[in-house]
């Protein structure tokens, strides 16, 4: 049976137990009156005082009679969700709501198991740019290599994807700083990833729901601020921690004098974010008997386009992974890991890597550039003129998916995905 994890409050429930919300649409058939809105205090309570009184009035929530629910879940195919008639007005609805917070769940969200990927990193480390470019790459180059596709689920993710893609790829504008949670709840980004099943005569497709959160850097800047994200972090199946090399003193000193845009202000050190993260996860039972956190963590150095002067011309960080025969290349993963490890050791005598290795049992290091080149020096809020030319943006997520057995892996043995 499919277990649904609410992407808003992270309550877990069997899909068949989720209530529905009436859409209050006129039926047109029987000429009956549509349902009117009702006060949804559970939802309003979860959203906090920012919700205006009028917005608290929503379509009635109901649990279908047992037989109806069973029939609906039996009828449910791979997509589209089930629909159940509202006992009030008789009109069918596909909108499910979370039992605990009454947030609406896109109908197809409930059809497959979800994987929650937590995205953390200091302010301006490149989180928002990374997610948008990643989504685009998964739909194009990477999707093609694996025969995979990624579909945004629900209106709010579809809307945000559209706006971000227009900004990044058409208007060539970089995203604004993400608003902190104190100013309102940022919706999670929901996707359905479809990957062909391998090794079975019948073929078929495996669907997985991916949930990303693009938090504001300041919400991850200390143990207290991070507390708001605790449920999200402890529900995560994998974590992507972004490290901005331009915020590390020793990298700034090593970069040749350049005429690019000014270097970013130095925010929370990645070492502190990693330490706070480990404390949070241990407090939620994610610590193993060896004291290390069991949640897999991909630590990715961003903006590697700026590191070119420090890299060997043959460095694997300068090109994308091959994805030969639609498989994740574990030897390449190891080569990148070793390369970043040796760069980091040079930067801070290995303090960050040592701490990560002591805190996390499943760790892999990555290097990526979402833009492929620095923003133009005369327009630091713009994408380079040629548009985003990403390098290795997909690697951290693919590693996390391969780790879960969701992607085929190729290796000569040494780079084995644990
Ligand atoms: N050189 C280079 N700069 C980048 C790249 N990606 C992002 N940046 C720069 O980093 C800045 C911040 O990027 P965002 O994606 O907004 O960072 P964020 O982590 O979402 O920031 P907050 O939402 O404030 O926490 C951008 O405005 C760019 O100047 C990249 O691939 N290369
Ligand atoms: Mg952001
Ligand atoms: Zn919920
Ligand atoms: Zn109704």
From TrEMBL:
Domain Double-GTPase: 115-306
Membrane-spanning intervals of the chain: none
Pfam families: DO-GTPase2
Entry protein name: Double-GTPase 2 domain-containing protein
């Amino acid at each position: 049976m499919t277990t649904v994890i609410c992407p808003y409050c992270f309550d877990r429930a069997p899909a068949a137990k989720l209530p529905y919300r009436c859409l209050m649409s006129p039926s047109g058939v029987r000429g009956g009156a549509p349902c009117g809105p009702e006060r949804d205090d559970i939802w309003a309570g979860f959203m906090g005082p920012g919700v205006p009184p009028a917005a608290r009035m929503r379509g009635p929530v109901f649990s279908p009679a047992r037989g109806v629910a069973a029939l609906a879940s039996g009828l449910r195919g791979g997509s589209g969700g089930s629909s159940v008639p509202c006992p009030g007005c008789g009109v069918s609805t596909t909108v499910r709501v979370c039992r605990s917070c009454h947030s609406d769940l896109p109908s197809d969200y409930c059809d497959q198991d979800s994987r929650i990927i937590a995205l953390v990193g200091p302010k301006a480390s490149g989180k928002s740019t990374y997610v948008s470019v990643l989504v685009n790459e998964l739909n194009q180059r990477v999707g093609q290599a694996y025969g995979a596709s990624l579909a945004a689920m629900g209106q709010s993710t579809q809307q945000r994807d559209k706006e971000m893609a227009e900004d990044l790829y058409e208007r060539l504008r970089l995203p604004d700083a993400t608003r902190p949670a104190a100013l309102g709840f940022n919706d999670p980004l929901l996707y359905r990833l479809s990957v062909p099943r391998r090794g079975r005569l019948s073929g078929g497709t495996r669907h997985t729901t991916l949930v990303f959160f693009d938090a504001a850097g300041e919400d991850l800047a200390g143990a207290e601020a991070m507390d708001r994200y605790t449920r999200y972090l402890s529900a995560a199946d994998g974590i992507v921690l972004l490290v901005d090399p331009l915020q590390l003193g020793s990298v700034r000193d090593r970069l040749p004098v350049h005429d690019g845009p000014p270097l970013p202000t130095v925010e929370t050190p990645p070492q502190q974010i990693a330490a706070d993260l480990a404390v949070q996860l241990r407090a939620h039972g994610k610590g193993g008997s060896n004291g290390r956190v069991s949640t897999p963590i991909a630590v990715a150095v961003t903006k590697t386009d700026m590191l070119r002067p420090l890299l060997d011309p043959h460095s694997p960080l300068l090109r994308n992974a091959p994805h030969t025969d639609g498989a994740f290349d574990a030897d390449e993963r190891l080569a990148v890991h070793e390369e970043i490890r040796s760069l980091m050791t040079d930067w801070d005598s290995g303090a960050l890597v040592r701490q990560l290795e002591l805190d996390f049992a499943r760790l892999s290091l990555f290097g990526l550039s979402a833009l492929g080149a620095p923003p133009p020096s005369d327009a630091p809020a713009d994408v380079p003129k040629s548009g985003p030319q990403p390098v290795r943006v997909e690697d951290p997520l693919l590693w996390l998916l391969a780790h879960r057995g969701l992607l085929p892996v190729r290796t000569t043995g040494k780079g084995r995905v644990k």
